[in-house]
């Protein structure tokens, strides 16, 4: 005669009875088109260079100015090299051109120092002050950039330049405003409780039949998120950064798996044109099945850096503690997390990335403590006809510290994940572009009857940032 497995025997040892720990990986940011510096004007004349220009300093000076005015910045290094060899060159013009070269190469610090030196000697030189303000803006030195743009406004500028200054000031003010990001998705879950489809659990040679609640359950509902953030520019590229991230899932046909999380962070951030560094202490809370589940605190560090114009390295690390309520207190833990992502941008329409995540979860009940190692690769592409896609494939290993209390084996999982998202760039409503996504997850465990499962999720998302 088959026996039914008493669920209380496995509480809190059955992992799919409680929500999975969710950690945010290091996310790459896509390259943005430069606001100021472009290599070439689309309809500008090409300048032919020759060593004969050395003997014609006035012509060389005119060509250097024309290359700057027509934004043919790729010609500047050679023109500057030639002009420096002419008799009595204009040193201010050379520094002016060198500043543009340095900024186009990403060396904003040297370029800004060079331009500040020019302004100190020639405070009424508006073109240099304007480019200095632009460079400060690109280097995320918002207050310093705003001060320079305000000085330009006071000088009385031509209408076209004055309009450009006003646009920069508006952009700086927008950077300092509160930013909001929200989204809502329709969800269809094929296995909302991450349960094995095996109808029996074998303890030794004795099979126990699972209850219906222990088998995979489907659910339909909504997932949603609301994030807000603000930066206060303290000095230069130094900021005080605040963010609050709230997300949740609510299932109208299976409320016992409703899940909401909120994390608030306040800390230091450094940001310039190439890099971002953040040190963010946080406090978080989680509700599961419409009941308070846990709360936690810790610190998160993030570093992003563009190695070249096409390669970006993003890293993140966390150290925190989680405290649970009631019967889940054995899951109280100290978590250590590290993540790194390397992105290569082929151009503005295509990118490839790969990354690794390491998670150490030290729980009070040692048989629940584990180590997880995950590798992932992703590809984003803008296609013809307005179609865009993003795909990510991940594979991970998870091993627990001690043997399972009932099965007397150390649990070992192999995890496979696939995420595919499609959207049409020209299809949007009130600034919201709908996206359709498919997510597949499969876990192969040595404790097959309890922890091996697969899950399919399809959702339609609507997101907006402002």
TrEMBL record:
<dbReference type="InterPro" id="IPR011990">
    <property type="entry name" value="TPR-like_helical_dom_sf"/>
</dbReference>
<dbReference type="GO" id="GO:0009279">
    <property type="term" value="C:cell outer membrane"/>
</dbReference>
<protein>
    <recommendedName>
        <fullName>DUF560 domain-containing protein</fullName>
    </recommendedName>
</protein>
<dbReference type="InterPro" id="IPR007655">
    <property type="entry name" value="Slam_C"/>
</dbReference>
<keyword id="KW-0812">Transmembrane</keyword>
<keyword id="KW-0472">Membrane</keyword>
<keyword id="KW-0998">Cell outer membrane</keyword>
<dbReference type="Pfam" id="PF04575">
    <property type="entry name" value="SlipAM"/>
</dbReference>
<dbReference type="InterPro" id="IPR057556">
    <property type="entry name" value="TPR_Slam"/>
</dbReference>
<keyword id="KW-0732">Signal</keyword>
<keyword id="KW-1134">Transmembrane beta strand</keyword>
<feature type="domain" description="Surface lipoprotein assembly modifier N-terminal TPR repeats region">
    <location>
        <begin position="51"/>
        <end position="149"/>
    </location>
</feature>
<dbReference type="Pfam" id="PF24575">
    <property type="entry name" value="TPR_Slam"/>
</dbReference>
<feature type="domain" description="Surface lipoprotein assembly modifier C-terminal">
    <location>
        <begin position="178"/>
        <end position="466"/>
    </location>
</feature>
<comment type="similarity">
    <text>Belongs to the Slam family.</text>
</comment>
